[in-house]
Amino acid sequence: MPPRRRTGRIPSSRTRRTGGNLNEAARITARLQQAGLTKADVARILGRDPSLVSQFTTRNKGAAFVPALTQIERAVAGGITDREELAAIAAPHITRRTTASGTRARVRGKALLITPTGTGTGRVAAQAIASGSARLRPLIAEAARQGLRLAFTVRLAKTGYVHPSGSRTDSPGIRRGVIQRTDHTEERSYGSAQTGGFDAAEFAARVDAAGGDVTAAVHAFLVETGRINSDARITHLEIRTWRPR
After folding, report:
1. Residue 118: phi, psi to the nearest 5?
2. CA separation for the pair 5, 215 (Å, rounded)
3. Closest to 203 in 3D by CA, of 130, 154, 157, 145
4. CA–CA separation, 12 vs 19, rounded Å?
5. Predicted local confidence at residue 96, as pLDDT
6. Does the pTM of the predicted model rise above 0.70?
7. How far apart are the C-alpha atoms of 135 and 131, rounded to whole Å?
8. Which of 140, 149, 147 is nearest to 122 (CA)?
9. d(CA 62, CA 53)
10. Angle of helix 214-224 relative to helix 200-209, nearest 10 degrees?
11. Which end of the chain lies in a sparser environment, N or C, as judged by fewer CB atoms within 10 Å?
C-alpha cells in the first residue's frame, strides 16, 4: 500500500514557539511594518535592540511595550513618519522592567562617544527639546574640551526662518542643506567641515550662559545672527562635531 500523504502543514518554528497566535506587541509591530516601518525602526523608536523586537514574535515578549506601540501606531496613522518624533511620542509610555524584588532593573545607557577623529553626533526631538536638550550638553562640553569644531541642524516651521531656503545670506546658501517636511517644517544645517563650522568652545560657553539649556543657546544664536524669528520654536536639533585639520 502506498504511503499516505500528509495533508497538514508542519508548523513553523515560530508558530510552535508562539502557539500559533501572535501577542499584541507582535500584532502591532506587524501592522507598523505594513505601514512602512522596519523592525529596526521600531526598535530605534522604542530605544531597544532589534533582537528584542524580533522576540515579540518568537518568544512572546513585548507586553510592557504595548502602550508605547499603540501610541506609535496612532501617530503613524495620523501621518507622522519621522523616527525621532515617534520616539518622543513613545517615550512617556515606556516603563522600565522590574526585578523579582520589585525594584527598577538596571539598563545600560548609551555612552557619549567621540571618535579619535573627533566625530560625534547627538540628536533630540520634541520631548527633549522641551527640557532644554540636556542630553546634548555633554557632547558639546567634550567637544569644547578637545578643541573640536561643531555644526548643527535645526528643524522648525518654515515661517520661522528669516530668509528663504537656498538664500546665500543664510547657511548653507544651497538647497542641499535644506530638508522640507510635509508638516510645513524645514530642516536647515549650519556649519560643515567644508565651511569650517563653529568653535565648540564658543558654543559650550553659550550653553553655560543659558544655564545648560542647549535649545535656548542655539535659539539665541540663530536670532542674534538674523537667521530665525525670535518667536520661532525649534522642534528638532542635531549636533555634529569633528576635529579641525
Report:
1. 90, 0
2. 69
3. 145
4. 10
5. 59
6. no
7. 10
8. 140
9. 7
10. 110
11. N
Rounded CA separation 25/31 (Å)? 10
Residue 147 amino acid letter: G
Report the interhelical angle of 83-90 vs 66-77 (nearest 10°): 140
Pairing of strands 149-157, 198-199: antiparallel
* Inter-residue contact 135 to 122 (CB < 8 Å): yes
Please state, in angstroms and rounded to a whole number, the distance separating the CA atoms of residues 80 and 72: 9
Strand pairing of 120-124 and 149-157? unpaired
In the numeric block, which cell numbers belong to residue 12? 513553523
Q: Is the pLDDT of residue 9 over 60?
A: no
Contact 125, 87 (CB under 8 A): yes
Confidence of residue 100 (pLDDT cuts 50, 70, 90): low
Helix (H) or strand (E) holding 208: helix 200-209
CA distance 42 to 59: 17
Cell of 91: 517615550
Average pLDDT over residues 83-92: 83
- E strands, the chain, are 120-124, 149-157, 178-180, 185-190, 198-199, 236-242
